[in-house]
Each structure stands twice: as structure tokens, then as C-alpha cells.
């Protein structure tokens, strides 16, 4: 009975404040693609896979192939706020017209994972301090690259999550091909309401998303 008291107390608080939210996001897929313009709540978390088949997914934190050296996401879903998805879809359409498409490495990231990252790399040039929270934790950031029509990734000079000056937009000691690839990625993303991050060529934030709340919601994977 004593164990029920905290639960019941929390339940009453939720009912009184009408503020209870699910702590998990569902990774279930829609039978048909959905229209993001019909999403009434622009701040709702949605699964990008439900809105397009034109992206390439290489979600690094759903595998051990990352700087943490362990799988920290239960499955390779890409959750973002609806407004972020809308802008990303528009950017990808622009890339498709040029013969490319977006490849995704990371999307929404629970705050608990941010804490693990900060413990390993406590450097705000590459990992946001969890006390403040990353734009990834707010559902407004994506880590991306580009692939061509054959599915080959464009050469961006470094791997994703390379912690060094060579990964920065201001580092110019690279071949013209690499610089051109980075410019292409940056120019299209900036045209579609995203902002770049100086030290990481792959990281883009939706403009204004720094004002959204930090979230720690996890997700349930399909059985």
C-alpha cells in the first residue's frame, strides 16, 4: 500500500494540473505516408519516416558505430518536432531537384543521452552541456550529409562526429570538391530556415528552436 501512495499522489497532481504527458514516443509506422501540413501542433514530436521515403537513414546512436562506442537508441527512428520535419522535407525536395538527398545521422535526442555524451566530451564546441540542453534535445536539430543519385555519400572531408578543426565550416584547407560539397549542403539548408553550427559541418538547427523545451522522452520500438 505504501508503494502506491507516491504513484497516487503523482496521479492526482497530474489530474489537477492537466499536464500529464507520455514519457514515451511511439515508433509505430503509418500504413501510408502522412501530410505534414495537416499536423495541427507544430511542436508535436513526429516520426520523419511517416512523411517521406526520400531520406537515407544511418542513425549512428542506434548502433555502436559512434564516439560513445555503444548503442544508446533502442532503434533507428528519427523523431523531430513537426515544424522541423516540415522544413526538412522542403530542404530535401530542393536537394532532390539537384540529384541529391539527405542522409541522417541523428535527430531528436533524449536529455539522458546528452548527459552521457557530455561526460565523454565536455567541450561545448562539439557537445552541448546538458544543463542548458542541446537543440537535439528540443527536437529542432539534425545531423546530416548528402548522397548522390547512386546512394554514394558526398565527401565532406571528415567523418560524422569528428572532433577537430577540420570539421568546422571555417576550415578551408580542403580540396575544392569537399568545400563545394559543404557549400551545397549549407546553402540549401540556410535557404530553408536552418542555421549551421560553426564547428560541425553536419549539424543544422531549425531557426528559433532554441526556445523550445528540452525533452527526455524515449521511444518504443516496433515489436
Keyword list:
alpha/beta; 4 helices; disordered N terminus; five-stranded mixed β-sheet; 25% helix; 223 residues
What does this structure look like?
The chain has 223 residues and is of the alpha/beta class. The protein has four helices and nine strands. It has helices at residues 4-17, 82-97, 111-120, 176-191; strands at residues 24-26, 45-47, 56-57, 79-81, 101-106, 141-147, 194-197, 200-206, 218-220. Strand 7 and strand 8 (200-206) form a beta hairpin. The longest helix has 16 residues, at 82-97. The radius of gyration is 19 Å and the shape is globular. The two termini are 33 Å apart. Mean pLDDT is 90; it is low at 1-22.
Model regions low in confidence, pLDDT < 50 over at least 5 residues: 1-22
Shape: globular
- CA-atom Rg in angstroms: 19 Å
Side by side, the strands of the main sheet go 3-5-6-8-7
Mean of residue pLDDT? 90
The helix fraction, in percent, is 25-40%
Q: What string, H for helix and E for strand, traces the elements in order?
A: HEEEEHEHEHEEE
| Number of E-type strands | 9
Amino acid at each position: 500500500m505504501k508503494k502506491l501512495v507516491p504513484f497516487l499522489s503523482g496521479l492526482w497532481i497530474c489530474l489537477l494540473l492537466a499536464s500529464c504527458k507520455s514519457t514515451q514516443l511511439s515508433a509505430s509506422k503509418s500504413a501510408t505516408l502522412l501530410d505534414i501540413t495537416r499536423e495541427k501542433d507544430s511542436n508535436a514530436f513526429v516520426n520523419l519516416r511517416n512523411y517521406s521515403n526520400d531520406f537515407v537513414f544511418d542513425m549512428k546512436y542506434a548502433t555502436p558505430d559512434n564516439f560513445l562506442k555503444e548503442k544508446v537508441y533502442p532503434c533507428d527512428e528519427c523523431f523531430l518536432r513537426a515544424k522541423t520535419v516540415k522544413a526538412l522535407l522542403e530542404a530535401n525536395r530542393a536537394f532532390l531537384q539537384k540529384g541529391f538527398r539527405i542522409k541522417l545521422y541523428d535527430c531528436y535526442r533524449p536529455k539522458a543521452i546528452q548527459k552521457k555524451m557530455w561526460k565523454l566530451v565536455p567541450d561545448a564546441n562539439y557537445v552541448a552541456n546538458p544543463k542548458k540542453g542541446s537543440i537535439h534535445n528540443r527536437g529542432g536539430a539534425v545531423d546530416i550529409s548528402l548522397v548522390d543519385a547512386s546512394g554514394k555519400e558526398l565527401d565532406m572531408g571528415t567523418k560524422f562526429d569528428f572532433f577537430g578543426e577540420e570539421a568546422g565550416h571555417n576550415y578551408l584547407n580542403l580540396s575544392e570538391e569537399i568545400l563545394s560539397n559543404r557549400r551545397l549542403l549549407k546553402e540549401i539548408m540556410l535557404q530553408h530556415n536552418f542555421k549551421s553550427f560553426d564547428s560541425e559541418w553536419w549539424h543544422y538547427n531549425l531557426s528559433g528552436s532554441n526556445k523550445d523545451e528540452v525533452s527526455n522522452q524515449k521511444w518504443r520500438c516496433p515489436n
